[in-house]
Amino acid sequence: ELYKWAAAVIASRSFPSHALDSSAPFKTGLSHETAPVLLPGLDLLNHSPNAKVTWKWTEDACSIISHVALPGNAEILNNYAPKSNEELIMGYGFSLFKNPSDHCNLALGSMAVARVATLCKQRLHGRASAGQAAEDGLLTRPITGVGWVRLIDNGSHHGETSAKQQTHCFSPAFLAHASMAFFNTSEVSSGYSEADPELFASDMTRSKLHTACAIAMILQKQYTDILAGNANLPCWPKNLRQFHAARYRRGQILILNALIKTIITKLRAFVGLEQPWLRDKRVVRLDHILKAGPKDFLQEFRSVLHVGLGTRNVQRIKQQDLLDTAFTLWLCGLWLWT
Q: What is the pTM of this model?
């Protein structure tokens, strides 16, 4: 019990040494860049993401200074740094309403992580062979396949359920690593940028489009998994733990819902589902093929679809889940025709 108490104190009351003033007159004695530091008294201050404070050390005192004037009897608040509600609940036992730092965690599969690690290792080896230094960038970052995504200005939009597109940001390197996981042979050999790509950048590539689709599916699965537990939840929280769990769950649903709508809307626009004349010409759908393909080839391709799939109607092919088969037939036929 004593050990549990001590572990809980360290987890919920300690400060990271790297976040404190560099002039602090103590040594941690550890080789790590950061270590937990206990400051009795100051650890009683509650957290506010809007608190603007500075730590100041002297030879015999540690002070926390507010950047704004505080009226009499006002609570003095600390800023624990940007933390999601999941982090706040697990580390401190509370959550925030309209938390501007709330986010959803994302994870790539083990095969994708292994592929990205292999590509980074190959590129670093190539640089070493060419006598180039390994830059402290995408190639040298830890590859865990785990990241997060959050809404920009989440504190002001939290709670909206409209289809309004909302800007979002991903954790460093996650999009770049995810994009690398979908590289084909040609993209691997041509190299890649070490800058984190935007999900819908002006220089949209095949791998980035694949990444956007994959992330949309990851988000949709998380959204579906959360909603699947509705039947087992109480109608109203019965205690403080359930209250914070419900707030966390609601925040996840709102973030996922907003992001899914934004990404799907952009994908639909990109492939021309809403306004066909604005679609990216590099995107090919089955209805494009049947309307704009070479006439001689299309006549034979329609016949193959009719014989092989029993229909040439795009909607029926979609309903029967035969799109992949239709595209395979198209690629094979196009290769033979050319």
A: 0.72
